[in-house]
């Protein structure tokens, strides 16, 4: 049976483990309060940033000294869950910093926007540490429902509304899959906690079916082939700061739980997962190769990156002899990805916020001459996404492929590596457009004086380089 | 002498360049020239002080960097630089070549000067790092680092089809280096070590078939870079489109990273696997010599001709390395430098004439020895050095390589020798068409001969060609200790191979016994 939470039985460890989530909850309340009391409105940004920074600070403490299982085993404030949580909170900050002057028509509703982002972040934190299918589902919905609204946030624009609707319909479908899968698992094993499921025998067809449904719904959230079809349209149609958040935060939270429930896959599913990983990389990279719209190109690249991370899950399922290898690799990969993709999508937001249009790749022509700093940052992000040494993206990729090789997934590793050559084809096309093609006549300057955007771009740049050059510093502290 | 200073001085110069205002071209040129000259001085000092008898790495600078997940305990990755007999010549060559490249860029790089020197200096750090890194992971970092600058140099300052050439160059090399990454991962995991020196002994402890796979992943990465025959198509495009300075660096140093890798990481680390693969690579090398020569013969573009001659000359180096004999290895190490000097010279000369006439078609020239005697002198010397005329550097290297190859495989050595003849054909034909005969094209009548700057660039290189040609021992001695160490490993592997093939009988024996048991009833 599901043990109902007894408020009076909470102890200090429970509070410590839940502290980051409580901090974000405070942030939500403050953001909403600021909407009601006009005098508080100027402090809204402070509340948003303060709560997230507090959450990050608390997560860092939890990484150093994990609180372990709290709330009668419904939530695990472990080091890896806290690190995933930290990444999610960071991705919210990055997305928010790029959103500050992004909206024009919707500017009066910016308070709702911020509160919704905080809600989604809270959902992510819950997903990262969930040790129970039901806890996870609460987190999933807390993430999804705000994101449906956020995707459609530019309500005057058809593509935004369409993105929201599309995301909602498919997301609701995935949520249904998850619930049905959880119900089947409960029917066959009598428990919803991961510990209980681990102990139970899951060989019955009912349990296998349930596990497959749960995993599939997660595949949907993290955009694994063949559940990736919503990604390009939703990513393109959504306001770019929201896309930034979706691409980084949702992926981190989804993979955090995917690693937790990888045991639901039957023995022998490692090969299937590996094949799906390679297929995801193939679909993402090959489709990105022919895109001319920058956001769509990055959307397909995001799909490809989900494939690489899935290779880590496959390594876990296949049994990496270094037990912590796949999860650590995925964490490092995700850490680099938050800053790289966050920066890349964010720069798109920065550049397109000046007027209402999609940013074509050609609009970047000659940008290296006109705005060298911005172009250099974007080039660095491209190289990191392509997994080039000196950047965090390289080490993340190195760790994932090392784990896959250790787990004897040689074929998938070789195919994955060859596909990442394809990936460099389009990442370098962006670099080429920036530096090697002359600007078109009368091209807009793509100027943006948004201070927070610049600061966060600097943060992302420094972090991408630091993760690539001084990995020891991070590995010692966070792993 | 501090190798960290040597390696990162160019990077410091590059950062300094970024701080200069865009318009101050003179300041930027001075910074680039001063930095590369300082590195050259350090490089020459390093060469002078280096002890060639010892096989151990010298001037070690190291610091712990980070840890990778390993089998039983984590693998310590070190930031470790050191120089030994295999790298010393290439390090010095790089250091000496770069200030000359900076000087040569004075005329033909007239736009985005700051960016150009930034990439050039960054590339120098990358190349020096590749030769000096004594940690496998660090090596891989530098290996990839040296790729990006050339991508930009080709793509921004290249010719008309530069975008195609730069993309082709990049994707070819990246495909190779990413496959190499899998080899790096597996090698460090299997041995629990990323120190190159320790790996030299540890790598032979890995299961032979696995060794062969790791060797293959390395060999493909390096072979694309060299480029060995089936992968050579990126080279001609890259050279044709690159600006002169880019071509000089590409031919002079970057391609050597491939042969250097084959020697240190291919043969040095996996002698047993190299023995298995030797016939294949010797064959590819020998065929490459002739094929490159035939390609060069068919060219009408003088720069493309020099580029194709690179394929031919590097075929010698590959053949010499995989001869797996002492003479072959020494010859290859020397020939890497020789090729850097003579091909560098040729590219510089072609660039100088291109700056005057803006065409590289051989038919547009003829008889210019009359108006440009100094140019003609340097061109002929370079061609003779490239052909392997005794008394110049090419002869020593090619002779040693052929000697070593003949011991290993008379067949391929013979094919290689014929390559020298073809080489003479295309080089002399090109010289005749370019320099001699009647001055048919009117535009050539008023060509100015080389000025002081251009002569100043060429003299040190020609001097080195002559020095190596006359007194090769002062260079060979620097490499002897390390080459002996590699030879020792090759001999051990060869002995193991003969004994294990003698041992191969017993595993067969039970099978025959079993078979005879079956037959008995």
What do these coordinates show?
The complex is a heterodimer of chains A (479) and B (521). With 479 residues, chain A is an all-alpha fold. Chain A has a domain at 267-479. Chain A contains 19 helices and two strands. Chain A has helices at residues 12-36, 44-64, 79-99, 110-129, 133-151, 158-189, 194-199, 205-222, 231-237, 240-260, 269-288, 294-318, 325-352, 367-370, 372-385, 392-406, 410-435, 451-469, 471-478; strands at residues 68-70, 75-77. Chain A has a two-stranded antiparallel ribbon with strand order 1-2. In chain A, helix 9 (231-237) runs antiparallel to helix 10. The mean pLDDT of chain A is 88. Chain B is mostly helical. Chain B has one domain (3-499). Helices cover 76% and strands 4% of the residues of chain B. Chain B has 20 helices and two strands. Chain B has helices at residues 3-19, 25-49, 88-108, 113-132, 136-145, 147-157, 162-191, 196-202, 208-225, 233-241, 244-267, 271-298, 302-323, 326-357, 373-387, 393-408, 410-435, 452-470, 473-503, 505-519; strands at residues 58-68, 75-83. In chain B, strands 1-2 form a two-stranded antiparallel sheet. In chain B, helix 3 packs antiparallel against helix 11, helix 3 (88-108) packs antiparallel against helix 18 (452-470) and helix 16 runs antiparallel to helix 17. The radius of gyration of chain B is 24 Å and the shape is globular. The N and C termini of chain B lie far apart (78 Å). The chains are: A mainly alpha (479), B mainly alpha (521). Chain A binds chain B through residues 321-322, 324-325, 328, 369, 383, 388-390, 394, 398-399, 401-403, 405-406, 413-414, 417-418, 420-421, 424-425, 428, 432, 435-437, 470-472, 475, and chain B through 64-71, 112, 140-141, 143-145, 148, 151-152, 155-156, 162-163, 166-167, 170-171, 174-175, 178-179, 181-182, 185-186, 189.
């Amino acid at each position: 049976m599901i043990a109902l939470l007894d408020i009076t039985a909470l102890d200090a460890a429970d509070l410590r483990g839940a502290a980051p989530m409580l901090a974000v909850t405070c942030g939500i309340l403050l953001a909403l309060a600021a909407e009601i009391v006009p005098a508080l409105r100027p402090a809204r940004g402070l509340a948003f940033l303060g709560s997230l920074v507090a959450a990050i600070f608390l997560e860092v403490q939890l990484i150093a000294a994990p609180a372990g299982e709290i709330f009668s085993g419904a939530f695990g404030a472990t080091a890896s869950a806290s690190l995933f949580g930290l990444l999610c909170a960071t991705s919210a900050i990055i997305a928010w910093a790029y959103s500050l002057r992004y909206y024009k028509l919707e500017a009066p509703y910016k308070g709702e926007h911020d509160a919704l982002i905080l809600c989604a972040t809270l959902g992510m934190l819950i997903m990262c540490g969930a040790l129970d299918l039901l806890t996870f589902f609460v987190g999933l919905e807390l993430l999804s429902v705000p994101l449906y609204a956020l995707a459609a946030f530019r309500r005057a624009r058809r593509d935004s509304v369409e993105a929201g609707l599309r995301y909602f319909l498919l997301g609701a479908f995935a949520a249904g899959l998850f619930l049905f899968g959880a119900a089947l698992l409960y029917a066959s094993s009598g428990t919803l906690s991961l510990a209980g499921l681990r102990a139970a025998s899951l060989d019955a067809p009912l349990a296998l079916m349930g596990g497959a449904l749960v995993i599939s719904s997660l595949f949907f959230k993290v955009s694994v082939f063949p559940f990736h079809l919503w990604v390009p349209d939703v990513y393109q149609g959504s306001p770019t700061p929201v896309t930034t958040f979706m691409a980084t935060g949702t992926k981190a939270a989804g993979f955090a739980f995917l690693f937790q429930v990888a045991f639901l896959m039957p023995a022998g599913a490692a090969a299937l997962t590996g094949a799906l990983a390679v297929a995801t990389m193939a679909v993402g990279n090959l489709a990105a190769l022919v895109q001319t719209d920058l956001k769509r190109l990055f959307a397909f690249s995001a799909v490809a990156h989900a494939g690489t991370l899935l290779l880590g899950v496959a390594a876990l399922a296949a049994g990496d002899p270094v037990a912590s290898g796949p999860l650590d690799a995925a964490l490092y990969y995700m850490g680099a990805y938050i800053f790289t993709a966050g920066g890349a999508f964010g720069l798109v937001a920065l550049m397109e916020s000046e007027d209402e249009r999609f940013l074509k790749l050609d609009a970047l022509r000659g940008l290296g001459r006109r705005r060298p700093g911005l172009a250099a940052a974007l080039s660095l992000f491209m190289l990191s996404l392509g997994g080039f040494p000196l950047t965090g993206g390289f080490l993340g990729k190195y760790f994932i492929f090392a784990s896959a090789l250790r787990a004897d997934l040689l074929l998938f590793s070789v195919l994955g590596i060859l596909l990442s050559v394809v990936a460099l084809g389009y990442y370098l096309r962006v670099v080429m457009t920036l530096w090697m093609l002359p600007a078109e006549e009368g091209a807009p300057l793509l100027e943006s004086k948004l201070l927070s955007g610049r600061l966060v771009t600097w943060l992302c740049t420094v972090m991408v380089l630091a993760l690539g050059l001084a990995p020891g510093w991070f590995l010692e502290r966070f792993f | 002498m501090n190798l960290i200073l040597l390696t990162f001085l160019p990077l410091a110069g590059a950062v300094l360049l970024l701080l200069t205002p865009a318009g101050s071209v003179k300041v930027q040129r001075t910074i680039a020239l001063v930095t590369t000259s300082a590195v050259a001085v350090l490089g020459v000092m390093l060469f002078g002080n280096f002890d060639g008898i010892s096989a151990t790495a010298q001037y070690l600078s190291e610091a712990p960097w980070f840890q990778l997940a390993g089998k039983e305990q984590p693998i310590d990755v070190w930031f470790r630089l050191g120089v030994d007999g295999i790298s010393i010549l290439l390090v010095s060559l790089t250091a000496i070549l770069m200030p000359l490249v900076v000087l040569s860029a004075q005329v033909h790089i007239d736009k985005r000067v700051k960016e150009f020197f930034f990439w050039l200096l960054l590339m120098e750090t990358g190349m020096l790092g590749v030769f000096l890194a004594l940690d496998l992971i660090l090596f891989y970092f530098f290996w990839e680092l040296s790729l990006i600058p050339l991508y930009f140099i080709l793509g921004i300052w290249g010719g008309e089809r530069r975008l195609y050439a730069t993309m082709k160059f990049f994707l070819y090399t990246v495909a190779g280096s990413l496959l190499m990454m899998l080899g790096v991962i597996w090698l460090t995991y299997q041995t629990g070590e990323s120190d190159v020196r320790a790996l030299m002994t540890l790598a032979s402890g890995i299961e032979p078939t696995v060794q062969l796979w790791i060797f293959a992943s390395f060999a493909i990465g390096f072979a694309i870079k060299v480029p060995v025959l089936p992968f050579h198509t990126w080279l001609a495009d890259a050279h044709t489109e690159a600006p002169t300075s880019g071509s000089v660096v590409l031919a002079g140093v970057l391609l050597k990273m491939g042969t250097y890798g084959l020697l240190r990481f291919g043969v040095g680390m996996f002698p047993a696997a190299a023995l298995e693969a030797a016939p294949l690579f010797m064959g590819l090398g020998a065929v490459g010599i002739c094929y490159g020569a035939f390609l060069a013969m068919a060219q009408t573009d003088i720069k493309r001709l020099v580029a194709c001659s690179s394929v031919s000359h590097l075929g010698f180096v590959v053949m010499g390395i995989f001869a797996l004999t002492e003479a072959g290895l020494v010859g290859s190490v020397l020939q890497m430098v020789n090729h850097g000097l003579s091909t560098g010279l040729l590219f510089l000369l072609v660039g100088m004439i291109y700056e005057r006439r803006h065409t590289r078609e051989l038919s547009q020239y003829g008889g210019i020895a009359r108006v440009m005697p100094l140019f003609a002198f340097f061109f002929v010397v370079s061609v003779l050095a490239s052909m392997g005329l005794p008394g110049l550097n090419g002869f020593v290297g090619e002779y040693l390589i052929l000697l070593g190859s003949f011991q290993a495989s008379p067949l391929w050595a013979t094919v290689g020798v014929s390559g020298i003849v073809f080489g003479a054909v295309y080089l002399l034909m090109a010289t005749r068409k370019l320099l001699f005969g009647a001055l048919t094209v009117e535009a050539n009548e008023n060509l100015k001969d080389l000025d002081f700057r251009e002569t100043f660039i060429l003299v040190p290189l020609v001097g080195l060609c002559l020095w190596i040609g006359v007194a090769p021992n002062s260079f060979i001695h620097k490499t002897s200790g390390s080459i002996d160490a590699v030879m020792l490993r090759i001999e051990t592997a060869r002995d193991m191979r003969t004994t294990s093939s003698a041992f191969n009988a017993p595993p067969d024996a039970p099978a025959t016994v079993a078979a005879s048991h079956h037959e008995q009833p």
